[in-house]
Each structure stands twice: as structure tokens, then as C-alpha cells.
Design brief:
The complex is a heterodimer. By secondary structure, chain A is mainly beta. Chain A contains 9 helices and 34 strands. Chain A has a single domain, classed as Maltoporin, Chain A, CATH 2.40.170.20. Helices cover 11% and strands 55% of the residues of chain A. Chain B is globular, with a radius of gyration of 24 Å. Classes of the chains: A mainly beta, B alpha/beta. Chains A and B meet through helix 2, helix 3 and helix 4 of A and helix 1, helix 2, helix 3, helix 4 and strand 7 of B.
Chain lengths: 683, 193
């Protein structure tokens, strides 16, 4: 791709402004040196220092923790996790201007996030992206939101009051040894704050050109010294996305969500948490429906709720246990299928040091999930109801080979599921920290994706007159992953993170001609069925950097590369899945985030992201590479009142990010340039 | 956007480059000056650490024999180099911890650490961190540090920086072994790992 293509004619960045962009960091760097010097030589006027110290001495420990500081001593230590991990903090979420979780993941190294239409997203890492990317496991406060129906995540019903999220932990690569099946290419764990940290009122609201209107409210209170709670409610209304040919798609939607969380520090060593959420939404979509295969406007109805309880007991600094149980209900009614699903999950985890230099974690879990599928002329299931029981256990030991310097982690998950029986997911990770500011790690892991309900027994009628059948004989998809990584902080202002991976996949899903070996023919249409005749490799790497240019300016560039080489086994008749899977993930991605703090509590943040083209074969629509920009300016008018304006996808009027999955065949839509304003008030 | 696209034509009026670079450089210069002022309004990490260090004592119960009388001062020892400037002394001035006046002492010799109630080992003394901890092992001395390895070496409270904020980890077992009782109010606020 040529440089000129990066900046389309209707964009407003001209190549003339590039030299300025390069000059600014250097000017700023010169500035840092003088600011640091000033701080060290105590050039700060004594009067101001006096007032500041007076204020500090009257602050409580909690207030001191929340105080932002200028760092002169040791800086934040680099991560010592032997895996490709990154964390989205509450500050990152706020400052990115994200309206939902997929948007909050956009600027993470190695993540691939594409918006399909107003409500649908494709989110994955290390390839195999799709509307139902089935190799990425997503959890919220320890509750799995990965649907066993298609395998994947319905992003349109995931969410929280974004202000109450503590952080989002993202692992790229297998997390199967701890999290089990479907944590093949990554794990996303969304963690909300302890109720103790969300006290008082927070009301926010706003609206704009694409996010038509939204309102959030939360109240956090204290019942006693050690018992805190919060209650929240959110509502949002999104506009349609535009169609490439002009006009709007029928994809606008609205959703509401509410819930509570109670945290009780019964003793200093016992934390009891009870939380619940409920949501509902009306989502407009277009589906191609059988038997006429005409586009049908749908008014999808989604609702659900969950209750989760957790007891964490701390024995000592290195020993604790967690007992957690949740009930989760989801309901989705569309013109192509209707699914109520109930899930119950209980799990136990124990961490301790059995002998010197060893840190062990083991756990046991049970999950029961029961569904009832409402069949339509387009999609039906061989079995109308199904209840699956999943029993699991894991054990992992971290051995300090050389104390504080070299450690080896060995472990495995063992699962017994209703589709494929017993599965083992072992892994080994080595961590070497030769100095405080250098971390090397390597890992070999085995991960699986268990068959989804639709892999197993779906009957799906597609234009121009074919029926795809599930296959109950399918084994799990398998991955052996080899990873290495290096993190370093050569300067106080800059840290780097490098990762390389080689993923060896086998028994990947293919679609073959002919009837399913396990299902009778049920339509006059031409039969296809799922099989396991795909294998191959995906490899690539990622480099990311955090550069604290000055005390008030931080830059985060990152680049990731991905290459997929998939093949069909002899005897396979599948001619499209290989090119579709290979085409659905971008080969190159680059992004740069800038975060600036100005005087008078004004912040300015912006990000530029480049995503390589997606070259899927027909009937999917290829997606051109794009560069776009998001920006946010916020002003703390008073300590408790913030006003912000966010612009998203600013560089062009609209652009396509991802093509809808063939399964649903709704038309491709573009992501529009958009702007919204928001007011946040805390009291 | 209309306004922005009009700005693109401005360079035609001036010699190339100057139109954009001149104002941009001026803007950056103004911003950095004003930002420098803003940065001074923020305390430094050592000022906040000093405030913590002075307050920690209020959450600790020492064994009875640690103080010879209620008037005996609680001694906070800074090992070798003091990174706090005047901050710690200012906080301690006139303050009391559980009735005891607070005394700040700079400690040059490892053997003198035992006579303190709280010791702080700054990053500048990293090389002798292990020896300093060994010198007070088993004594009712609250050990506070700030390097990556301090907690792993058996230190009781380690300051950690996260997102420009000062947090701390507590190794409660080490404190218990030394006969110190740390209040649950402080333990709950500590970072768990």
C-alpha cells in the first residue's frame, strides 16, 4: 500500500504536517530534562511546597493512594508474567472515549477489533476473527460470557457501567491451563471495582451523531464499616450504520442494564461478594431468511441476567482460596432462531506454597448449561433441548529455579465435557528476569476449542439452496502454541514489549459436501456438513512501547504482524474455509495512542490506528485497509464535574471494518465518523 | 470539519512550512511552560511516600517492650540517603503516633537500624537491602522499602507505583513474625498479589 492511500483525499491530515509531528516529541523531551532538574534541585517555590505538604499531612491513607504524583523514585515495575498480557485500566477506558468493551480493546497490542454494524463486533487476537470468533474466551468478574451456541461472544449484550470497571485483563495466546476450553487464542477478563471503591453518586450522560443518547447512574453506599454496596443503571441508544452504497442499514438499537454489587470484608482475611446484573435490548438487524432467501428486517429481542457470589479467604500472603458460584440466564429472539439458556457454574480455587520455592494453584469446577432452541425455516437444531455438564479440574505449580530470577510454571487443565469427553490442556512457561528491568519468557501450551452446539447438530438453510448440517462426531479443535517474549525498560521514560508466536492448529472446522454422518437429511436442499479437515499454522509477533515523553504526555505505539497458513486434509471438498479464515484477519496492524494532561485539569487524548485489508472470498465482501483516528478532549470543570467531547473514526466520512459472517448474511455496513459529548458528575 | 479543511489552504498564503511549523512550535512552547506550572502543583512520589511513612505507625501495634515509656519517641530511621527532602521532618514535627512523639533519624550504620521502630530503605541503598533486613530480623521494626525485590526479600511494606499513584503491598506474615500487629484498616487498602 502506498503512503498516499493512508490519507484519503477527504481527510484533513496533509503530509506537510508530518515534520511537525516529529519535532514535537523532541521539543518535549528537552522539556522533561529541565522539569526533572527543577524538581531535583528543589527549585519549586517554597510557599507552594509548604501548602502542598500541609495538604498531604491532612490526607487519609485512601486519599494518599488516589493522589497522582510526579515520579522521582523507582517507576512502575515491568510485568513479570510469562505470557503476552496487557491491561486496560479504568483511566484507559475513560480516556479512550470507548462507549463499550470492544472499543476499549481497540488500542491494545495484538488485538483485532472490527465493528460490523451498529451492534455487532468481531474481536479476536492471533487470527480467526469473526462475528463469532470462537477461539477467544471472555469472562466478566469470573463469569464466562462465551456462548456454547455458536462458540463466541454476543458483544451486543456484554457491558457494564464503564466507570465501575476496575480493569480489563487481556491475555493473547492460550490461557487453557487455567481457564480451560476455548481459551485458545486469548482470554479477556473484565473486572469490576470493589463496591468500596465506588462510593457516592456518579451520574453521566450525553449523546451525539452515532451514539444518539446515553445515561448512566450509580450510587454507592456503606452499610457498616466493612460492608459496602452499589446500585447502577445504564441506558444507550445507537443510530444505524451507513451502507456503502448510501442510505442507512437497519441496525440501530437500544439497550438498558442495571444491577448491584455488595462487598463485605467480614474479616480482614474474608471478602464476600454478591453481585447481579439484568439487561434488555431491542436490536435491529437484517437476516437472509429461508425459504425465499430474501433480506428480512428483524427486531431482535435480547434479555438476560445473572447472580454471582464469591468468597475469598486469605490464609497468608501466598495462600488463599476462592469459592464462586453463579447463575446466568440469556435470552435472544431473532427471525432465524430463538434461544433461552440457563447456566449454573460453581468453582473452587486454592493457592498455596506446598514446599519452599513452589507456588501451587489447583481448582475444581462444574458448569451445567441448558438451552431450548426455537426452530425456524432458516436455522433449526436436531435436538430441541440440550443440557451439558462440564466437570473440570486444574493444577499448576510455579517453581523458583533461581529465587527471584528464574521460574518454571507447569500445569494442566483436565475437563470432561458432553461433546468430546476427557480433554487435557497442559502448558509449560519459563520466566527469566536477569535484572529488574528485563524480563524474558517462553511458553509451550496445548489448547482446545470444544465443539459448539451448532458444530454438533445445527441444520442451517442457506442461499441459493444448500443446507449445512452439524456433525456429532467432531473432535475438539487443537492448538499447540509456542511463544516467546521480552520486556524491557531501558530508560525511565520508555518501556518495550516484544512477543513472537507460532501456533500449530489441527482438526479445525471445515465444511464438506455430502450429508452429515450423524444427522438425517431434513430438507430437499443440497447437503453440506461440518468436519475437521483443516489444519495449519499461524505465526506472528507484536511490538509495543510506552513512552512517557514528559510528565504530562505519554505515547503508546504498537505494531503487530500475523500470517496464517491453513490447509485442507486429503479428501476434503472444502474450497472456501481456508481463504475465508486467512482473509478475515489483518496481516499488519499499527496504532499510536497519545495521552496529554494540560493545566486546569484538561486532558487531550487521541489515537491513530491502521488495519490492513481483509481479503475474504465471495460471498463475503473484502474490506480495504484503513487508517482512522479517535480523539477526546475532557475538562474537569470542578473536581467532581467533567465535560468531554469524543470524536471517533475521524479521518473519513465512513469506512468498512469487518464483513458480516456468512452464517447471518446481513449486508455489510460502514462505520461512520461520529462525535459525542458527555457530562460526568460525581457527588 | 469545514473549518479544518480551510486551514489546509492557509500555507498558500505564506512560504511553505513556516505557516504550520511556526505556530505549532510556539504552541508547544506555551503548552510546556504552562504544563510545567501544572506539574508543580502535583506532589512528588517521595512527598506522598513520606506522608505514608509518617502515618503507617498509627496502624501498627508494637509489643509493650518496644517503648520504655509513653513519652519515648517513635523513631523512623532512613537508611543512608534521605530522599524526602524536608517533607518527612515537616510531617513529623509536632505530630504524635499513639501518644508517642515522632523522631526522624538518618541511619548510616546497619547496626543502628535495630534502635528504630520504623525503617525506610530507599532505592539508593538497594545493594545493602538484604543486609539491612537481616539486621532487624525478628526485631519489632516495621520495614518499608521501594524496590521491586523488597517484598520478595522479606520486607514488610513495599511501595509500588501504579499509574502515577503510590500503592503499597504488605507482607503481614513478616510483620507478625516480628511481633507487630498491622491494623485491618491498613491491610484492606494494600495491594494483594
Amino acid at each position: 500500500m502506498r503512503w498516499s492511500e493512508l490519507f484519503p483525499a477527504d481527510g484533513f491530515i496533509s503530509s506537510k504536517s508530518v515534520p511537525v509531528a516529529f519535532i514535537i516529541p523532541f521539543l518535549a523531551l528537552a522539556e522533561t530534562a529541565t522539569a526533572d532538574e527543577a524538581a531535583r534541585t528543589n527549585a519549586v517555590p517554597a510557599v507552594r511546597d509548604d501548602a502542598r505538604l500541609k495538604k498531604l499531612s491532612s490526607m487519609s491513607v485512601e486519599e494518599l493512594i488516589n493522589q497522582k504524583v510526579t515520579i522521582l523514585g523507582p517507576t512502575e515495575s515491568i510485568s513479570k508474567t510469562p505470557a503476552a498480557v496487557s491491561v486496560v485500566t479504568q483511566e484507559d477506558i475513560q480516556r479512550s472515549g470507548a462507549m463499550n468493551i470492544p472499543e476499549a480493546l481497540r488500542y491494545l497490542p495484538g488485538m483485532d477489533v472490527g465493528q460490523i454494524d451498529a451492534s455487532q463486533w468481531a474481536v479476536s487476537s492471533r487470527g480467526f476473527n469473526d462475528q463469532f470468533a470462537n477461539k477467544l474466551l471472555v469472562l466478566q468478574d469470573g463469569r464466562s460470557v462465551y456462548t456454547p451456541l455458536f462458540g463466541g461472544v454476543f458483544w451486543d449484550v456484554q457491558g457494564a457501567m464503564l466507570e465501575d470497571i476496575d480493569r480489563i485483563e487481556v491475555v493473547r495466546g492460550p490461557g487453557s491451563t487455567l481457564w480451560g476450553a476455548n481459551a485458545v487464542n486469548g482470554v479477556i477478563n473484565i473486572l469490576t471495582k470493589n463496591a468500596r471503591d465506588t462510593q457516592g453518586w456518579l451520574v453521566s450522560g450525553g449523546g451525539g451523531s452515532f451514539d444518539r443518547g446515553f445515561a448512566n447512574g450509580r450510587y454507592g453506599g456503606m452499610l457498616s464499616d466493612d460492608l459496602y454496596y452499589r446500585v447502577y443503571g445504564t441506558y444507550m441508544n445507537h443510530d444505524d450504520t451507513p451502507l456503502p452504497a448510501g442510505g442507512t442499514s437497519h441496525t440501530d438499537w437500544q439497550a438498558g442494564r442495571g444491577g448491584f454489587r455488595i462487598d463485605w470484608n467480614k474479616t480482614v482475611d474474608d471478602l464476600l461478594t454478591l453481585q447481579a446484573d439484568a439487561y434488555g435490548g431491542e436490536i435491529h438487524e437484517m437476516f437472509i431468511t429461508a425459504p425465499a432467501f430474501t433480506p428480512t428486517a428483524d427486531d431482535m429481542h435480547v434479555s438476560g441476567g445473572n447472580v454471582l457470589g464469591r468468597w475469598t479467604h486469605t490464609f497468608s500472603d501466598t495462600a488463599n482460596f476462592k469459592l464462586q458460584a453463579y447463575f446466568d440466564r440469556t435470552y435472544r429472539r431473532t427471525v432465524v432462531f430463538t434461544e433461552p439458556r440457563n447456566t449454573f457454574d460453581v468453582n473452587f480455587q486454592h493457592e498455596f506454597d506446598p514446599i519452599d520455592r513452589n507456588h501451587m494453584i489447583w481448582g475444581l469446577g462444574y458448569r451445567g448449561t441448558s438451552d431450548s432452541e426455537g426452530n425456524t425455516a432458516t436455522v433449526s437444531w436436531d435436538q430441541a433441548h440440550r443440557t451439558e455438564n462440564l466437570f473440570s479440574g486444574f493444577i499448576q505449580d510455579e517453581v523458583a529455579l533461581v529465587r527471584n530470577r528464574l521460574s518454571l510454571t507447569l500445569g494442566t487443565k483436565i475437563e470432561d465435557n458432553g461433546y468430546t469427553g476427557f480433554e487435557f490442556e497442559p502448558g509449560a512457561r519459563l520466566l527469566w528476569t536477569p535484572t529488574e528491568r528485563n524480563t524474558f519468557w517462553g511458553a509451550i501450551s496445548h489448547a482446545i476449542r470444544t465443539p459448539s452446539r451448532s458444530d454438533n447438530d445445527v441444520i442451517f438453510n442457506q442461499p441459493p439452496g444448500i443446507t449445512v448440517y452439524g456433525n456429532a462426531d467432531l473432535p475438539s479443535e487443537r492448538l499447540t502454541a509456542y511463544e516467546i517474549g521480552y520486556r524491557t525498560e531501558p530508560l525511565k521514560q520508555a518501556s518495550f514489549d516484544f512477543t513472537l508466536f507460532y501456533n500449530d492448529y489441527d482438526r479445525l472446522r471445515s465444511t464438506e459436501f455430502g450429508p452429515s454422518p450423524t444427522q438425517p437429511l431434513s430438507t430437499p436442499f443440497f447437503p453440506l456438513h461440518f468436519d475437521d479437515k483443516l489444519f495449519g499454522a499461524a505465526y506472528g509477533g507484536c511490538v509495543s512501547m510506552t513512552w512517557r515523553v514528559t510528565e504530562w504526555w505519554q505515547l503508546q505505539p504498537n505494531y503487530s504482524y500475523l500470517k496464517m497458513n491453513l490447509h485442507t486434509r486429503p479428501g476434503s471438498t472444502d474450497t472456501t474455509t481456508v481463504t475465508t479464515e486467512e482473509g478475515e484477519s489483518p496481516e499488519n496492524q499499527f496504532s499510536l495512542r497519545s495521552m496529554m494532561d494540560f493545566p486546569h485539569d484538561i486532558t487531550f487524548d487521541c489515537g491513530v490506528r491502521y488495519v490492513d485489508r481483509l481479503a475474504m472470498p465471495a460471498p463475503l465482501t473484502p474490506v480495504q485497509s484503513y487508517v482512522t483516528m479517535d480523539a477526546r478532549v475532557a475538562w474537569h470543570v470542578r473536581k467532581n464535574l467533567e465535560v468531554s467531547v469524543v470524536g471517533q473514526s475521524l479521518l473519513q466520512k465512513r469506512h468498512a471494518e469487518f464483513s458480516p459472517t456468512a452464517i447471518l448474511a446481513n449486508p455489510q455496513t460502514d462505520v461512520p465518523r461520529s462525535i459525542y459529548g458527555k457530562i460526568t458528575w460525581q457527588f | 470539519m469545514a473549518v479544518l479543511s480551510r486551514i489546509r489552504f492557509l500555507p498558500c498564503l505564506f512560504p511553505r512550512g513556516i505557516a504550520i511549523r511556526g505556530p505549532a512550535i510556539a504552541l508547544v512552547a506555551i503548552l510546556s511552560l504552562s504544563v510545567r506550572v501544572a506539574a508543580q502543583e502535583q506532589p512528588t512520589d517521595y512527598q506522598v511516600k513520606a506522608a505514608f511513612l509518617e502515618k503507617f505507625g498509627k496502624f501498627i501495634e508494637w509489643p509493650d517492650n518496644a517503648f520504655s515509656s509513653p513519652a519515648t519517641p517513635i523513631v523512623i530511621g532512613i537508611f543512608v540517603d534521605d530522599p524526602f527532602g524536608s517533607a518527612l521532618k515537616r510531617f513529623a514535627d509536632g505530630d504524635t503516633v499513639n501518644g508517642h512523639p515522632v523522631e526522624i533519624r538518618q541511619v548510616k550504620n546497619i547496626s543502628d537500624l535495630r534502635s528504630c521502630h520504623v525503617i525506610f530503605i530507599p532505592a539508593s541503598a538497594k545493594g545493602s537491602e538484604r543486609d539491612a533486613l537481616a539486621a532487624v530480623a525478628g526485631q519489632p521494626v516495621l520495614t518499608v522499602g521501594e524496590t521491586d525485590d523488597f517484598y520478595n526479600e522479606g520486607g514488610m511494606i513495599e511501595f509500588v507505583i501504579e499509574k502515577k499513584q503510590v500503592h503499597f503491598r504488605i507482607r503481614n506474615e513478616a510483620a507478625r513474625a516480628a511481633g507487630l500487629k498491622i491494623s485491618s484498616k491498613l491491610l484492606i487498602l494494600a495491594r494483594r498479589t
